[in-house]
Structures are given as structure tokens and as C-alpha cells.
Amino acid sequence: MTSVLEAALLADVAAELGEAPAWDAEREVLSWVDILAGRVHVTSAGGEELRRYDVGHAVGAALPAADGGFLLADARGFTRLAEDGAAEDVLDLLASTPGIRFNDAKCDPAGRAFAGSVAEDSAPVGRLYRLDGGPEATPVLSGLTMANGLGWSPDARTMWFADSARPCVTGYAYDLESGVLGAVESVIELQETGGVPDGLCVDDDGCVWVALWDGGAVHRYAPDGRLDSVVRLPVQQVTSCTFGGADRSTLFITTSCWEMAPQQRRMQPGAGGIFVVETGTTGPAATPWRDSEHDKSRKADDGRSHVG
């Protein structure tokens, strides 16, 4: 029997396109981005904004870094963002391809960064990249329309991925030692929803939690595709989710108020806010990005700028 949970509004932040929530267990904070506004937010477990960085261009995800700050997957490519706001290019992969930006990103359990690109005109030219040493970006999937949610099974043998153009989440065989994707092993077909798959996360039981854009919900699916739980929200544009909090049982959910008419905003006053629900299960915190190639002897201000 499918259980039904109700999410509560934690922070009424009215993000235009809130996305990519990540729980930093070491610092006990939630980071997330407002993609089109070009902002990175750092929020307490109680919803208080602790820091905000204005990047100046679209930013699809801010991955906590093992040595502090973040790895941004943004409109230019990959960027390091220090806690003091210092920004340093890692790889300007997308700088020469206007109209294409990164849309979501996540680290695998070994700390490798994966990021998916999307074209502003929705052409099926997106790719999922793995950031390797060098640095260089290795394409692992291509022909994507809206590269979105990523997550790994507890044993790291399956990588789950969603292209929002398809009403499903695909599970690929995964080799953690090499970071290489294998064949498609399973497909979760979305059930009982008018929405499309957006961001996702995987809990400690191996179940996949999928945010449903225009669906007003997050669905929990067993690895065999069975719909196990539904989290209902009072807003339609649900974008992503992650586990966090002191015992990692709280599901933090980002939403959007993008292109909503005034009447829709009045009917959905929490749109763009951060929502939470106690799930009765647990999930992993974000794995920090580990940059083994970064030269620690580089001067702090060498080739850097600051964002507000």
C-alpha cells in the first residue's frame, strides 16, 4: 500500500528556480541554488539563511567541496567558489557554446563530480559529463533534452539518472573504482502523476525519491519500480530533494515560482520555498567533491575574482 506524507514549508524564499539541494554533514547546513537568478544559498536546518553568493550567471548546482567552499556547475562550466566568495575557473567547458548551461550535478560516493547540460531551446543536445583530472570533462551520456536528477544506490553499483523529457528514471550499471557507466539495468516508470521527473535522491534502503515538476509531489520508488510513498506539496513546480538534518531523516525539497502568473502565486503562496517532511527513513548526506588535481600552493588571489 502506498503511503502518503504531507510536506511543510520550511523557508518562504520565493526562489525563481530553486534546485540542487545538498546537505553538508560536516558543517550541518543545506546548500542550494536559484538557477536563473545565479545565486548560491546556504541555509540552516531550521530554514535560516546563513550566506548567499551572487554568481552573476546561471548556476545549476553548488557541490560542497572537501576542502571548503563549492564546485559550481554553471553556465560557463565548472567553477570553484570559496567560502569568502573568491571564484576560480576549473574548466570553462561551456563558454564557447552560448545557449547551453549546466542544469544539475552531484558527486558519486568517491567524490567525482557529474553534471548534465541543457539547451535553452530544449534541443536534444545535452550531455552528462564526468569531471576528471587534468581537468577535463568526459561525456558519459549524450542526446539528452533536460539532464536532471542523479543518485547512486547504497552499494554504488547503480547510478540513477533522469532526463526530464522522458517519464522515467533509468538505472545504469556503475563501476565506482573507474567512474564508468555500464548498460541500462532497470527503468522506473513514473506512476500516478501528471508531472515529469526532475531532481532525485536515493535513500539508505536503495529507494529513489523523485521530485515531480508540475506534479506537486515527490514519489518514492522501490528499485523494482513499485511506488512506495507519495509526498504531497501545496505547490506544483517541485524541483529536487535531498536527505539531511541531525539524523538524516528529513527530506529537504526545493521548488520554483518560475513563470507563474499572479493568480497562480496567490493560489500557491509557498511556491519557490524550501519544504521539509519527516520520512521515517534515512538517506546519505552529500559526498563532497574531491579535487586531487588542485595545486594547493597556488596563491589565494591568483586568477580569482569575487562574487557578492
Globally, the shape reads globular
Strands in their spatial order, largest beta sheet: 1-22-21-20-19
| CATH third-tier fold name | Neuraminidase
Largest sheet: 5 strands, mixed
How many domain regions? 1
What is the CATH-assigned architecture?
6 Propeller
Element-level helix/strand string: EEEEEEEEEEEEEEEEEEEEEEEEHEE
Structural class: mainly beta
Beta-strand portion reads over 45%
Question: What's the total count of β strands?
Answer: 26
CATH homologous superfamily descriptor: TolB, C-terminal domain
Low-confidence segments, ≥5 residues, pLDDT <50?
Answer: 294-306
Polypeptide structure, described:
It is built from one helix and 26 strands. It is mainly β. It has one domain (3-292): TolB, C-terminal domain (Neuraminidase, 6 Propeller). Strand 13 (126-132) and strand 14 (136-144) form a beta hairpin. The longest helix is centred in the last third of the chain and has 6 residues, at 262-267. 47% of the residues are buried.
Characteristics:
single chain, 308 residues, mainly beta, 5-stranded mixed β-sheet, 5-stranded antiparallel β-sheet, 2% helix, 51% strand, globular
